[in-house]
Structures are given as C-alpha cells and as structure tokens.
Design a protein that fits this description.
Oligomer: single chain
Order of helices and strands: EEHEEHEHHEEHEHEEEHEHEEHEHE
Largest sheet: 8 strands, mixed
Radius of gyration: 21 Å
Number of strands: 16
Number of helices: 10
Strand order of the largest sheet: 3-4-8-5-7-6-10-11
Structural class: alpha/beta
C-alpha cells in the first residue's frame, strides 16, 4: 500500500476575550467538598445544598458527564449567579436538569412523541433535548436571553444530582462547574481549582469521577428531521437506532477563526433549524464561544474524516503518530528547541526521541473513543499543571471521535489540518 498523500495547513486561531459578566457581587466564600455519597433526599448534605439553592447560591454537583454548577431555572437571581460565578457570556444558554418524567409534566415541558423511545432508552443519561419553551415558566436567562422559544432539558443519571433536583422540587440549570472557557471538570478537585472561594459547596460521591467525562449530546427536537447540535457522550449511531432520520452534526470548518463567531455579517448555514448564531443567542451551549481551553497553548493535529477508511486501525494510528512527530519536529525541535512539549496520545507507543518532548499522556486507544473522551478533560488539566510543559500537542482523531474532535477544535489555539487520500 502506498502512503496517503498529505495536505497540511495550520490554522492559528484568534480567541476573543469573553465579556466579564457581573450581575451580583462575588464574595470570598469557604468552599467545601461533601464526599459522603448523599443519595437520599433527606441527607444533610442534600438539605444544605437545597438551602443554598433556595438562597440563589450556586452549588456544584456531580453528573455522569461532567460536574455541573446548579441553580434554579425559575429564579432570575439564581441563574444570574451562575453566569457571574463562571464569568460566562449571558447569551450562552444553559441546560435544565430534571429528576423525573413527572417533573417534565409539572413544568409543562413536552417531549415530542417521536422521542418517546429514545427517552426511554437514554433517560436518565447523557442526552439533552431542545424542546419548546413553555411560556411563563422559566426565566429568560436560562435560554440565553429574552425571546428565545426553546430550552435544553435532560435527566442526569447520577443519583446525587437527581436527589438534589427532587429535593428542590424544580428543574436545575447546571452548566459545567468551571470558569468559562476552561476544560470541563470531571473530578471535584477540578471544580475546586476553578471555583474555590466562588461557591460554598461541591457535592461529590465515593468514585469522584464522571462516568463519561464529556458533555451530553444535544439534539434539536423542535425540527423535522431532528438534528445533533452538539456531539457528546451518545454517538450518531446510538441515536439512529430510534431516530433513523436524525441529521449528523457538522463540524464548523477549522479554517474559520472562532473570532468570526462575533461577526454579525456571517450567517449560519448548517441546516439544523436554529436561528442565526452570530447575531442571536445560540440554541445550545457549545455552539458559539471558545470552550475547554487550557492555559497553555494547545496544538491540535486534526486528521480529516476523508482519511481512507480502508486503512486498518494500526495503519491509522501509525499515520497519526507520524504526523504528530513531523509537526513537533518542524515547529519545535528545529524552530524552537527550547520549547518543552507535552503530547496527548492515542497510542501506547512512546513518542520518537525528540529532545523537547518532556511529557506524554495516553488518552486511550484509538479504537476506544469512550475511554479517550472520558480522559480528555482530566488530561488537559493535568498537562496544563506540569511545570516542564510549555506547549500541549494533541494527536489527531478521525470521525469515530466526533465529540473529542469537537472539543479539541474548540480548545485549540492552533489547528493543524491533515488530509489523507486513499491508496
């Protein structure tokens, strides 16, 4: 087999500084972690968390995807506090979390009949549905601003999260419990790093690790056919079993700078039914702003989905490793040999001996996308904390890792596109 022909192009992203939102004054708080697995509604930690939420003070909660920062969906002050604590842009919508199907009915949230089977299969679980927003029930801030007619809803699988929601008696908005734009937290220690002094309580459990480690899959249930707005823990194939006509998520081309998302002259043409994401609030989180970024520069070796599917898994892994090594040699080993590089890899093999590669973290095997996804954010944070790493380089993934590719593209300061054609 002849080697694939390669077309490479670097894309240096200009990342806008997100506007600092100040609805309330932040106070220095004593942040504590409750690690007693409080699954009962009557548990003292659940009751304490409930009292904080009723006072419009956010609480960090574990879910099967990532840790969330919870606030009451019917309270404007509660939701504004989330935006303030996270320093989150106010037009970036939140997802409501319910404890039961009965709560959906109580708060006039209607799941279309076509989604009955998918809800039975994946709720509780990492699936968010964009539903019609019932009038006069949830505050505008949940949806990213006044006039939005839809709202994202899911039922988390984590028992602690559902117990707290049931105890409060209403849906809780819960975006990731991190500072806006940073890697999502999958352990309570990650939450503490970002939220220490900003919130009073972090609920956790004995495992203290999120099962999936990546956010939920968001599906627009208000259009025909339904469409994936954000890839996540559930794959396209998972959903096609129940929604055969569902439209696949289309990655925003890497040749467009994230900065262009603020350009009002641009228009969304992804055919998913949502409004213009450049001039209005996006329909779902993760559609507009920079996310998941470590403090250190992140270079993503983006392997095109057009890479020949006739290649074996071993050949693809070797190809990805070769491109990563060539990139490091060309951009650091020769151009700037003093730069210390940490590599996030999808191969157990050690990187070739390159003098400036100081660290390597194995995300998971190339053919095990769930493990790669579960380890991604924790690995970004770990690499970011290493003193002997100046720049992070992530090995590429192909289309079997659509959620991972999405997160890395949004997190990267430099995306290096690699296209391979067949034999």
């Amino acid at each position: 087999m002849s080697p694939p022909s390669i077309s490479c192009s670097p894309v240096i992203r200009s990342v806008p500084v997100e506007t600092q939102i100040r609805f309330i004054n932040l106070e220095e708080l004593d942040t504590s972690i409750a690690e007693h697995d409080p699954k009962s509604i009557d548990h003292p930690d659940i009751q304490y968390a409930k009292s904080l939420l009723l006072a419009d003070r956010p609480v960090a909660i574990p879910t099967e995807t990532v840790f969330g920062l919870a606030g009451r969906g019917t309270s404007s002050n509660s939701i504004k506090a989330i935006y303030t604590v996270k320093n989150r842009p106010s037009d970036n919508p939140l997802i409501l979390h319910v404890s039961s199907l009965q709560m959906l009915q109580n708060f006039k949230l209607r799941v279309p009949p076509a989604f009955k089977n998918v809800v039975q299969k994946y709720w509780p679980g990492p699936l968010t549905l964009i539903l019609e927003r019932p009038p006069g029930v949830f505050v505008d801030e949940v949806c990213g601003g006044r006039g939005r007619r839809t709202v994202g809803v899911r039922m988390p699988a984590n028992a602690i999260a559902r117990s707290l929601i049931a105890a409060v008696g209403e849906p809780l908005a819960a975006p990731s419990a991190n500072l806006s734009g940073k890697p999502s937290p999958t352990q309570s220690s990650h939450v503490l790093t970002d939220m220490n002094g900003r919130i009073s309580l972090i609920l956790s459990d004995e495992k203290d690790r999120c099962l999936f480690g990546i956010e939920s899959t968001v599906v627009n249930a208000t259009v025909e056919p339904p469409s994936i707005l954000r890839p996540g823990s559930l794959s396209l194939e998972d959903l096609q079993q129940f929604l055969p006509d569902i439209q696949e998520y289309h990655v925003k081309p890497s040749t467009e700078s994230i900065k262009e998302d603020t350009d009002s002259s641009k228009r969304s043409e992804n055919g998913t039914g949502e409004s213009d994401r450049f001039t209005e609030a996006p329909m779902a989180p993760g559609m507009k702003y920079t996310h998941y970024s470590p403090n250190k520069p992140l270079h993503f070796i983006n392997i095109s989905p057009s890479l020949d599917h006739s290649l074996s898994e071993a050949q693809i892994v070797d190809f990805i490793r070769e491109q990563t090594s060539l990139y490091i040699q060309g951009n650091f080993s020769k151009a700037d040999p003093t730069t210390r590089v940490g590599v996030l890899s999808t191969s157990h093999q050690e990187m070739p001996e390159l003098s400036n590669v100081t660290q390597q973290i194995f995300l998971g095997a190339y053919d095990d996308p769930k493990t790669v996804a579960r380890n991604l954010f924790a690995s970004l944070r770990k690499m970011d904390s290493m003193e002997d790493v100046d720049v992070i380089v992530s090995e590429g993934v192909t289309d079997v890792h659509s959620a991972v590719r999405n997160r890395l593209e949004k997190a990267a300061t430099v995306v290096f596109n690699v296209t391979g054609q067949g034999q």
